[in-house]
Amino acid sequence: MKAYVFPGQGAQFSGMGKNLYDSSASAKALFENANEILGFEITKTMFEGSDDELKQTKITQPAIFIHSTILANTLGGIFKPDMVAGHSLGEISALVANKTLQFEDGLRLVSKRALAMQKACESEPSTMAAILSLEDEVVEKICAEIEGVVVAANYNCPGQLVISGAFSAVEAACAKLTEAGARRALILPVGGAFHSPLMEPARAELAEAINSTEFSAPICPIYQNVTASAITNPTEIKENLIAQLTAPVKWTQTVKQMMNDGATSFTEVGPGKVLMGLVKKADRKMETICAADLVSAG
Hints:
Number of domains: 2
Strand content: 15-25%
Shape: globular
CATH class of the largest domain: Alpha Beta
CATH topology of the largest domain: Malonyl-Coenzyme A Acyl Carrier Protein, domain 2
Distance between the termini: 23 Å
CATH architecture of the largest domain: 3-Layer(aba) Sandwich
Order of helices and strands: EHHHHHEHHEHEEHEHEEHHEHEH
């Protein structure tokens, strides 16, 4: 069974999607459609922007979504998913790929999500930190003991968990986690505390947009971040997508569940190869494929 996975924030790079724009008329039309929907030329930033420009949440999220969904579309007949999943923002890309959402509706949701998250980030100094080589349970326990908001946010792979919360609480947790034996406790260069209770204003704002968007029955199950299980019911998919902003991304659990349910290969669709690496951490023998390589190979 073929699993297709879609990356989240952090996978962006200058020049992303340019080869698709130049080599495919249908891809070019979708890129131009995206510019029109957003009301500005995001393609210019994607193709020529600096790292700093691409790092802005309001640019990063739509850019990765656009690249991922257009890449899936360009695969044509090769793209035959038995199951899909997306890391954080990538969940919306996955929902377009499995036909739950239309491209245009997905892009509008991603744009609203990015702006709402940006706004939530600006209301309180907050951040995230990567914790390496410590058991998940130890990280959870120490976070629970810290004063202030700090929670486990991204279960990326065995031995790599990202925490999220108020700046002072994350710093205090990092010190405690280092004492407890973490190989590294590294504050990340992100704009705020994604997937934590501090994203509640953004969750409420996005809920309205999601509830007023049409979600269709998918062509294959999506393994959602909140449940790490296969979902096909459009109502449940909506509820989980709304909950995702303040809940942890259970990526380790998702990958393991997809494997348990029969995944024989994982294809990463979007910029970069981060998710391929995380899959290999869960099972180094699992076949991983980069969709961008399939397109460049013709």
